[in-house]
Amino acid sequence: MHDQLRARQVFKTRVNVLYGVMAAILLVLLGQLINLQWIQHDKYALQADRNRINVVPVLPVRGEILDRYGRGLAVNTIAYQVMMIPERVENMDATLGTLSAILGWSDSKELSIRDRIQRSRADRPVLLDDKLKWKQVAPLASRLHHLPGVDVQAGTFRWYPYGPLTSHLIGYLSLANQEDLDAGYLPTEFVGRTGVERSFETTLHGSLGSQQEEVDAHGHRIAVLKRSPPTLGEKLQLTLDIDIQKAASDALGNRTGAVVVLDVNTGGVIAMISKPGYDTNQFITGLESEQWQTWLQDPRKPLLNRSTQAAYPPASTFKLVSALAGLRYDEPLATGHTFCHGFIQLADRNLRCWKREGHQEINLHNAIVESCDVYFYELGDQLGMEKLSEEAHRWGFGERTGINLPPESRGNIPNATPMVADNRRDSAALRRQQWFRGETMITAIGQGSITATPLQVARFAAALANGGELLRPALEADQPPVIERTIDVDPAQLQTVRNAMRDVVADPHGTAFWPMRHVPWTVAGKTGTAQVIAMAQDDQQPSTPEYDRHKDHAWFMGFAPFENPQIAFAVFVEHGGHGGSAAGPIAAKVLETLASKETIAPPAPGPDSAKARKAATAGKGGA
Q1: Which end of the chain is more exposed for a tag (fewer CB within 10 A), N or C?
Q2: Is residue 61 within 8 Å of 232, Cβ to Cβ?
Q3: Which of the 8 DSSP states describes residue 517?
Q4: d(CA 248, CA 259)
Q5: Residues facing 211 on adjacent strands
Q6: Average confidence (pLDDT) over 59-74
Q7: pLDDT-based confidence at residue 608 (cuts at 50, 70, 90)
Q8: Do the beta carbons of residue 550 and residue 530 sit within 8 Å?
Q9: ∠ CA 191-195-198 to the nearest 5 degrees?
Q10: What one-character DSSP code corresponds to residue 239?
Q11: Helices 454-466 and 319-328 sit at what angle, rounded to 10 degrees?
């Protein structure tokens, strides 16, 4: 009996302990429930949302680039993109192999994509392919459930309708590199690399938006929960006229060279072409290395913008600077005359004129019209290098024009005391080379170490046309002109040079008369023929297989209409031969197109245009 009572008591004790343990467990569970449901609700709810909701950046649509009449030069076209979030991919090699087979990637493109993935954050979308049509992505879209982390999205891509015609001016885009990522760009964003795309990147790019997406366990989007739209990039209207650009391109044909056309009152770039060009559309999703190497190794250098980045001897176009310097410093020959026998003797050599039989008795006016070298040899000798250099700098040579299109060459204006490396073996020191008279004399005709870009020459022509306003070339439409400086030039002296430029085209003896005789406008211009190699004393051209590579460079610059200037131009043909016969016909076709467009109207009355008209009508006679 006693044992039964004892056993019952032990049992009750154990039951009570069990109840106590159960109560304690229940209290702990209740406490944890309260903790999860109330105290830490926000924290765990956020974690749950993060597992279910993916915040994805939304790229802005880039602003389009238009010509002066609203025609698209860089536009956006709807297409499909293949994206990947690397951390959600289960088997990267197998996934990329499948994508390559479906989309037809080359080996080099697949390697480039692998490199792009490795350089990107694993939790951010990476652009694998772009500019795809639906028939290309349809087979992939049907298999996305087997490819976690991969998605097909509709989007826009950049398209350059005119391709090589605007390649150097408009430029191109490419995917963000490491430097861009460090600056805050995403791996899927495109960044302007050259031309206007680069210069106006901030304006064109826009700003990111975002959207919250509900995703499944494989990372595939189920629904868009919330969207913050991106800010669109701004449209950019340029001063460029694509009709004139095309006319210049057609006139150049397959030749290597550049054409620049400027508005003489605003500095607006109406046309700027460099040939050969290249297809900028190939840069959008990464250029194939073979194509890049082809461009790099091409002896014609299609990636070089000859309008702004290449500087050449300006040849006889520089005689206008020499003439202005002679008039400014009242040199005797500037208002007198000399006799051209076809050469001038200097020590033990002859400096020759392009016209072997000579121009006979000649003054400043006729020396410009007929481009007499002997006259300007003598004028340069009277001036000296210091005065020539000062005058050249005054008119904008030897300095960058300031166009918003880097990089830009400044060209070269020599002075009388250049520094050169010592030729002695035992010394690497610098010495001051003696400046010879002959160097000044050939500089006066635009030869030797002097160089200028086609844009500098066009800006010089614009300053001659508008009465001495040195303008900064402008790309953006509807912007006030920027006058870098007003050149202190006597209006009568300027008109002396302008009248001679008119007769270069109007006088049958002028070097540009024949190619320009049918142009509807009265044109003022100056031809130039820049030597590439030194000519022998016997005046013979080299007759070798490399003849074309050694042909002279051809120039023609000027402005029109003479009575009320609207545009200035510079035409350059690399290894083209003589300025009048090679560059003149190109300018004629461009000017004929300009003259046919009634939309290029005379500038409205104002201080600048009034000054230009005053310069155009002052003084009718030649020097």
Answers
A1: N
A2: yes
A3: T
A4: 6
A5: 56, 227
A6: 95
A7: very low
A8: no
A9: 30
A10: S
A11: 40
Computed from CA positions of residues 585, 587, 589, 592, in that sequence, does the dihedral angle turn out positive or negative?
Answer: negative
Q: What are the DSSP calls for 334-388, one per residue?
A: GGSEEEE-SEEEETTEEEEPSSTT--EEEEHHHHHHTT-HHHHHHHHHHH-HHHH
Query: Which residue, among 256, 316, 324, 319, has the nearest Cα to 556 in the 3D structure?
Result: 316
129: helix, strand or coil: strand
Q: What is the pLDDT of residue 528?
A: 96
d(CA 206, CA 209): 10
Distance CA 308, CA 171 (A): 13
Label the pairing between strands 65-66 and 236-237.
parallel
Distance of CA 191 to the CA centre of its chain: 14
Q: Is the peptide bond before 607 cis (omega within 30 degrees of 0)?
A: no
Neighbour-count burial for 490-516, b at 16+ CB within 10 Å, e otherwise: eeebbbbbbbbbbbbbbbeebbbbebb
Structure tokens at 82: 């293949």
For the whole model, what pTM was predicted? 0.81
pLDDT for position 175: 84
Amino acid at 598: E
In single-letter form, the type of residue at position 300 comes to R
Amino acid at 478: D
Q: Per-residue pLDDT tens for 289-328?
A: 788 888 989 999 999 999 999 999 999 999 999 999 999 9
pLDDT at 534 over 70: no
DSSP for 309-330, written as a single string: T--B--GGGGHHHHHHHHHHTT
- Say if residues 208 and 558 touch (Cβ distance below 8 Å): no
Nearest CA among 518, 500, 510 for reference residue 580 = 510
From the list 80, 175, 371, 403, the residue with the least C-alpha distance to 272 is 403
Dump the DSSP string for 270-289.
EEEEEES---GGGGTT---H
Rounded distance, CA 257 to CA 276, Å? 8
Cα torsion angle, 362, 364, 366, 369, sign: positive
* Percent of residues in the chain assigned helix, strand, coil, to nearest 5: 40, 20, 40
The values of phi and psi at residue 99, to 5°, are -60, -40
Per-residue confidence band for 470, with pLDDT thresholds at 50, 70 and 90: very high
Q: What angle do CA 581, 568, 236 make, to 5 degrees?
A: 120
CA dist 251 → 241, 256, 279, 578, 596 (Å): 16, 11, 20, 16, 16
What pLDDT score was predicted for residue 607? 37
Fill in the DSSP letter of residue 549. G
Name the region of 15 (left: φ>0; alpha: ψ -120 to 50; beta: rest).
alpha
- Cα–Cα distance measured from residue 172 to residue 321, given in angstroms and rounded to the nearest whole number: 37
Q: Which of 271, 259, 263 is nearest to 469 (CA)?
A: 263
The alpha helices in 427-551, defined as continuous H runs, are: 437-443, 454-466, 491-506, 513-516
**Among the listed residues 317, 558, 344, 571, the one whose alpha carbon sits nearest the alpha carbon of residue 444:** 317
